[in-house]
Amino acid sequence: MKADVQEPYREAARHRSSGWLDDVAPLLSSAALTLLGILVAIVLTDLLAIDSRQRTMLIFFAGILVLPVSTVTLQYWLDRRWPGVGRPFEALNVWCAVAALTSLVLVVLAAWAAGNGVIFWYRAGMHAARIVVFVYAALLLAACLSDMVLDQARSIIARASSRAVPSVALVLAFAAAVIVLFRIGPGHRHFSPLFDFVFRTLPGGFPDRSSLLLAIFTAVLLVTVGACLLMLERHLAATQPARLRLTQRVALACALLASTVLSFDFSLAGDPFHYMTVMGPALHLLHGGTLMVDTFSQYGPGPVLVTYLAFRLGPPSFAVANIAIQLCNVLFYALFITALWQSTRARMSATWFGLVFILFWLSAWDGGQGNVNAAPSVLGARYLPILLMAVGIGARTGARHSALVFLAGFLSGLWSIEAFVGTFALYSGSLALRNLRDRSYARLAKDLAIATVTMMSGLAALSVGTLLAAGSWPAFDVYLGFLSSYNPIAQFWSIPFDATFWGWIPILGGVVIAVAGCWLLVLDSKRSALLATSDTWLRHALPAAILTAITGSYFAARSVDYTVAIALLPFALLFIPTALWLADRALDGDRVAGILTALTTVAVLWASIFSCLYMFRIDSPYSLLPSECRYHDRCAPAALYTALRGKVDRELALRSTDNPWSLDDYDRAIVADAKHLIERYAANSPKVTMLLGEGANTQQMLSDITLMYANKWHTWPRSFTFSDELVPAIYARILATDVTLATGDLVVRRRDEASLGSLEKAILERLQARGSLCELRGSTPEVIAYRFEKTGDPQSPEACHEHQIDGEAAERSTAPLQDIASFINALRTAGHALPDGVLDYPALERAGVAVPPNLIAGRRLVSFSGSMSLQKRQSLLIIDLSLFPKTTCQQLLPAISQLAGVARIAITATSADEQDAPISQDRAKLLCAAERRFLRIIAAL
């Protein structure tokens, strides 16, 4: 009897505890309707046959802005116009979204078991999307045309008035979709890549049981410590508020120190091609160039200046540039921790989980095989001013304009066009919504005027400084010319979305809910529950959402799956405060919050296990402080400095390193040869004409790298050859420069002119038109040194002639041939153990195939500095090599066709182009002339 009496009170308490759902429900309805809107957009763009790149960007911008704002506005309008219609419309949206997610999950499950899984997914997934869209439209139309249908919907909702069931159902369906749709790979051994990392690729391989158990234990410890910190803060808030504030400040200081010390990577890994985009212009500045006049980078002047300052303090090298970029990343981490600390009351646990997310961000790059510091454009050197603006807006004072906000605006004007646009969007968006919420339109105009002045201050300083230094204004039009190549729909740079990777949908969901919540505040400024937290939404959630959208746009434009991790830390600014708020409600007994907290805990626990397992393995791509201390016994600052100094010295000596992203050995030999010729013939010349062409990765960069190591620069005003060729205005400016070489000046050229790009070929033509090139002694198989003799000047008594060279060129260029031969032999030996279909490196490991080390990068197959793909079709092996070197194509092609087991070869993936092996030298010459940079080898088992 007593239990029966208390049950109504418990039910009432449960309803009160989940009362927040009444305020969140419109946001969930908006998110559900946004999902349905995205499906509509997918169906329409497919019917209209819109270009894949344009389709991706249309759906992206609709998903992050147009649809959330439109759906919230529609929901609000229905609630105001017809109060009885709002709840049925909300329920229809949520349940149709649940049906859509469930149907897509079922399609993927069917595709996983199907033989032609990807094709099945494309067809059945599109059919499922169409059916959901048509059913939703039919139900909506029936509700609009029939009062009986609407009345029945109202009665059903009245009987089940709680919003908990549809809300939880939507979240569970969304979680299931994230797991199943994360990466659609039908026939995948472990169903989803989310589970791959806990299984060994072969018996006795990684991860072993002890490593996995240690990672699980550490992850559980990390989550437990975060939970304990949350409970400690709740206790201190109730009993000792003053001590809580002091403890939170100490926690912030400790987290900032940890994010700085523990995230620095002592491996100094750097990809030469990507780093030269900032190093080349920085070197140009060191040797007399003027930024934004004759020195340009697509990343903008900011990262170039950072690299330039690093080169003023240390020897120009990839290692020193890497340190500079890492400092930008470390500063980004510090700002990220500060933004988290600002955005929630549970500040100690927020900063703790912020450190966990930094660890996850580092390990998630390229599926645990990559290093975020290997390229300068990934995080800090790209988005630092935008995050600084977010921290300035979220400061405790709540001031709309502050010194920190001004600094962020000023810095963005000096940084890059991307940083300027992103910072201004964040600044003006926050001001606009705060004033629209308050209905203060006059202040909106004033705030936007102040914001404009703030943002223009950096551009003004850059312009005036350039005018005073060079006597001319910055060539902003030339710099913006990079956008013709680097934009979301450019064929050169963008990669269209292939609809097989959907791991980005949690990030999109966070942005949608944040944007919808902020816009709802603007529409309904009297809404009591949201009004109480309006400053939190507009000062913290909105900047975080805009920053997440900006960083996420990289993946939308260039859909390489792991690049979505760029948006991970900005997304954490939305995820962590929300998860801690739910955990706080769950500790108060809220059942719905408890269910959602359990889901977020599982997600954080999974991320922590992955991070601990991959970051601290012995062959990790990073060498953080714990690894340096554990594996190399370098714990003291002096030992760490000595190790860093040794890496710089080793690079400057052009010795091989253990860095998988360093210069290819063949390229390093060419650079060393050219550097030796410079030291021999032009040791006292500050500038040298260098024409070395492309590296093994087919990019025009060897000339710039050689001059960096020789501490000299180009005679023509070049910054980075690859980038200079992309912008017609820069290309024309370089060639229009009146450069006159004197007789006796050194010219170093690649022996194979086919490796030269258009810019270096044009320079060579100008040299030949103005004089003659006489070969000097000491030329190597790949590099020739010339003395320039100007037309009309007295000729040197030593006649021009070609010198004998040794046979090292053939040995260098054919070295990969031995690896290919060994690889084919190993495949043929283990052919019976190989399954039909696409084969990756883990599959070869399981079959016992001995893959030559030079054909492995991380856990992937590579060759000739390009990717390699492999598949088996019954008794045939098909090996596809990308970035096949054109400089040695004629030499390698006949040799490859003569390898044992090779039946046919082709320079395309079309069967009609296949040639029977072996092929003649004449045939190879014709094939190589096409310059397809692709080779297909078909071998018989």
Task: Walk me through the structure.
The protein is of the alpha+beta class and 941 residues long. It contains 36 helices and 13 strands. The strands form two sheets. Strands 6, 7, 8, 9, 10, 11, 12 and 13 form an eight-stranded antiparallel sheet that branches. Strands 2-1-3-5-4 form a five-stranded mixed sheet, with helices on both faces. Helix 16 runs antiparallel to helix 17. The chain starts with a helix and ends with a strand. Residues 1-17 and 802-812 have low confidence and may be disordered.
Short account of what is shown:
This protein is of the alpha+beta class and 941 residues long.
Strand fraction band? 5-15%
Number of distinct helices: 36
Overall outline: globular
Strand element count:
13
Low-confidence stretches: 1-17, 802-812
Q: What gap, in angstroms, lies between the N and C termini?
A: 80 Å
Key structural traits:
941 residues; alpha+beta; 8-stranded antiparallel β-sheet; 5-stranded mixed β-sheet; 36 helices; 7% strand; disordered N terminus
Question: What's the structural blueprint in terms of helices and strands?
Answer:
Elements lengths: L1 H16 L2 H28 L4 H30 L1 H31 L3 H29 L1 H13 L4 H18 L11 H4 L12 H31 L1 H21 L10 H15 L14 H13 L4 H25 L4 H18 L15 H14 L9 H13 L1 H22 L2 H30 L5 H4 L25 H19 L4 H5 L1 H24 L10 H20 L3 H25 L9 H8 L4 H16 L12 H17 L5 E5 L10 H9 L2 E2 L6 H4 L3 H9 L9 E5 L7 H13 E5 L7 E8 L17 H6 L1 H15 L7 E3 L1 H7 L8 E2 L2 E4 L2 E8 L2 E7 L6 H9 L4 E5 L8 E2 L4 H9 L4 E7 L1
Parallel strand pairs: 1-2, 1-3
Antiparallel strand pairs: 3-5, 4-5, 6-9, 7-8, 8-9, 9-10, 10-13, 11-12, 11-13
Helix pairs in contact: 2-3, 2-4, 2-5, 2-20, 3-4, 3-20, 3-22, 4-5, 4-6, 4-7, 5-6, 7-24, 9-10, 9-14, 9-24, 10-13, 10-14, 11-12, 12-13, 13-14, 13-15, 14-23, 14-24, 15-16, 15-17, 15-22, 16-17, 16-18, 17-18, 17-20, 17-22, 20-22, 20-23, 22-23, 23-24, 27-28, 35-36
